[in-house]
Amino acid sequence: MIIQPERITSYSLSRTSHGDDIRRVIVAAINGIDAGEAIKSLVTQNSNKLIIGKLVYDLTCFKRIFIIAAGKASIPMAGAICEILHGQITSGLVITKEGYGDSEVYRFDSKVKIIEANHPVPDQRNLVAGEKVITFSREITSDDLVICLLSGGGSALLTKPHKGILLQDIQLTTDILLRCGASITEINTVRKHIDSFKGGGLIKFLNQATVITLTLSDVIGDDLGVVASGPTVADSTTFDDVWAIFNRYQLIDQIPANILSTISAGIQCEIQDTLKPGDPIFNKNINMVIGNNSHAISSAFNASQICGFDTRILPYPLQGEASRMGEVLAVEAKSLLSQSSSRSKPICWIAGGETTVTVKGTGKGGRNLELALGTVKGLAGLEQIILISLATDGGDGPTDAAGAVTTNETYSRGIEMELDPDDYLMRNDSYHYFKSLGDLITTGPTMTNVNDLIFIFNL
């Protein structure tokens, strides 16, 4: 799904002569990791041969071909596979986030079912989707080929709670984990031990079929056991790890009793842990990453140079508490300004990663908006600085914004409007702070998801 530069509207970008170029850099990052095009660049068919990177599969060796897709990028990923294997798909099931099911680019025939469910907290639709996966998988045999297509959001969308765990238990636990500041690795470690699909569990339902899993990674380092909670990947984490996470964030008294009893039973070896590395069930399973945050950064880098910016990539990933990372990036911006006194052209710095937010207030926002709000005071008074924090999937937390713009004038503009950034940070209400200033970035669903991006411009 191609995003056009004019879709990026912002008060601050409209006031700089470099606004159009900045928009071009932003959309280049998103468009450069189009999930459908990523599939097409890796997967081809030549006669009866399916070629995936350096791997070659003889399709005559398989009785049928099935597709299972889950995640925010599942529509373009599945659409691309259907286009490549035109007329050869026996059946397919695609689970995506609510509002992501309509596609202007890809058209699916009746063999491929599209299901919309909730994200990031599952609801009844997610359970129904999970049951459809189980029903769907009963038709699959060891003579078949299954192509699994996974992307960020798959953890919530592909849900089947363990026996004894209720939907409300999953909902409450997910909400607690999202608000406590836990990393995505920690959150998905918990998810893998309370859900039947995760931690390699989906493989159990696929009846020894050959499974090819293609993943669009939204995890720094591309740990496939974390992306979508690794439904087709062996898991090295344990029930003890889950209990340690609960203790680390002092959650024992908040987690539902059904969840605690399941984890406790696992620690006592009363129930089986997730599938571990070396299990022969994975012998016919191949996993491959088709794209990640680095691809988006590379596309932004190239566009930035074409637009005439002196472009650099920050050498470390964004991580940790979002507002604190915002403070760090404001210091980086000051450093940038001090280094640029003799520059001959404007500068663009690019970074990627994923921060966390410890939610203490009742406001509205996400990690990108909170990070941007954390930079406001630090950027105040600097000359010609613009910082943009962006979620590549087009949605930052429970908002319709992808991110926000801060400049050296954001603080003073806010004070004139009686907007105190510290007050909004305390209430975790970054969305309304930037909405008041006209500096939200709204792209709508991008149909991709490869973490977050930061751009610092010195103009």
Short overview:
With 459 residues, this protein is of the alpha/beta class.
- Kindly state the mean pLDDT as a whole number? 95
Tell me the number of helical segments per DSSP (H or I, 4 or more residues long): 17
Biggest sheet descriptor: 6 strands, parallel
- The CATH architecture name of the largest domain reads 3-Layer(aba) Sandwich
pLDDT < 50 stretches = none
CATH homologous superfamily placement of the largest domain = MOFRL domain
The CATH topology of the largest domain is what? glycerate kinase, domain 1
Query: What would you call the structural class?
Result: alpha/beta
List keywords for this structure.
6-stranded parallel beta sheet, 459 residues, Rossmann fold, globular, 15 strands, single chain, glycerate kinase, domain 1, alpha/beta, 18% strand
What features would you describe in this structure?
Helices cover 36% and strands 18% of the residues. The chain has 459 residues and is an alpha/beta fold. The protein folds into two domains: 5-32 and 294-458, MOFRL domain (glycerate kinase, domain 1, 3-Layer(aba) Sandwich); 35-160 and 195-237 and 274-291, Rossmann fold, CATH 3.40.50.10180. Strands 6-5-4-7-8-9 form a six-stranded parallel beta sheet, with helices on both faces. Helix 4 links the parallel strand 4 and strand 5 (91-97). The longest helix has 18 residues, at 322-339. The two termini are 30 Å apart.
